[in-house]
């Protein structure tokens, strides 16, 4: 195995630093969801319950358990720590979720769910904890009016309840905001709200105008607006130091704040995603399948060569291609691909404010 191919780190829809030596799998149990958020990158069929043909296409329980097993062996071979994110759609809609969590926890994986939180009450939180769940990530997309405008009435209160009951049940909680023009001005309030509800970690992802999010193309932040948001968060990081981890794994954020020993975007580097029909993707925010788990093993897909462009960062276009931060950052490939109209995942990251600043200083 080449040295480059031994790179094994993490991302949660974004990268973690390589110090952690964590490899993640984001596993989508279903595409169905009880909400219809305006910015969701997953196209949703009508109705909460899956139609029969969709249930047939979706991974079956034995297949999901086999994926967990494959992932366990794959990560152990790389001497990394396995982190598994169960998501959807809404993962709570899968009645077997506790069984999958338990299977992963028994193999020593860090277990996490990505949820809208609306279906998690006190009893459900205890059940998930008992199954071996360690971390619950809940989406918070603004203060109450904004969140409910995006996610539906009453859902801010439900999401906040989920943070509370999961914390009370002894799990770590992450509040995750998808940042756009719709909520950028509320960032301080969202972080404060998260801290008030004992959130362990605050996370942020940029709006990717794909799927349902296409209609929100005009809400994507400009470079300068993103810089303003990141500057505010930097101040909040100081305010909550020691109380709440503001650990944003966006490559531009990590480059902006000088995170060391990181490769930025985790696509092809330290994580992979399998969606509900078995398609394997470098990142779920990028609608770009490299194979299907029903036809190729996880290990074979990883080393198939189809991820080499991301892994070795060759052929990157525009600013990213000539950037001195390319190895440590890489830009968000999902944002870049969406901005290119779905044509190229190697396009430049259009929200980068660092390249221009570095060029102005004559260092890029
Ligand atoms: S493409 Fe974007 S969201 Fe996906 S892993 Fe890379 S930085 Fe994270
Ligand atoms: S130009 Fe691309 S690689 Fe360079 S800092 Fe910006 S996003 Fe990162």
Report on this structure.
The chain is α/β, with parallel strands linked by helices and about 375 residues long. The chain is built from 14 helices and ten strands. It has helices spanning about 50-55, 60-75, 95-105, 120-130, 145-150, 155-170, 185-195, 225-240, 250-255, 300, 310, 320, 335-340, 355-360; strands at about 20-30, 80-85, 110-115, 135-140, 170-180, 200-205, 245, 270-275, 280, 290. It has a ten-stranded mixed β-sheet. Helix 3 links the parallel strand 2 (about 80-85) and strand 3. It is globular. The protein starts with about 20 loop residues before the first strand and ends with a helix. The relative contact order is 0.14. Mean pLDDT is about 90; it is low at about 1-20 and about 45-50.
Helical residue percent?
A: 25-40%
Radius of gyration: 19 Å
Bound molecules: iron/sulfur cluster
Q: How many strands? A: 10
Kindly report how far apart the N and C termini lie.
33 Å
Strand arrangement, largest sheet?
7-6-5-4-3-2-1-8-9-10
Largest sheet: 10 strands, mixed
User: In what range is the share of β-strand residues?
Assistant: 5-15%
Q: Total helix count?
A: 14
Uncertain residue ranges: 1-18, 44-49
The average pLDDT score comes to 89
Can you tell me the overall shape? globular
What string, H for helix and E for strand, traces the elements in order?
EHHEHEHEHHEHEHEHEEEHHHHH
Structural class: alpha/beta
Q: Care to give the gist of this entry?
A:
This protein has helices at 52-57, 61-77, 97-106, 122-131, 144-151, 155-168, 187-196, 223-239, 251-256, 298-302, 308-312, 318-321, 333-339, 354-360, and strands at 22-28, 81-87, 110-115, 135-139, 172-179, 201-206, 245-246, 271-274, 279-281, 291-292.
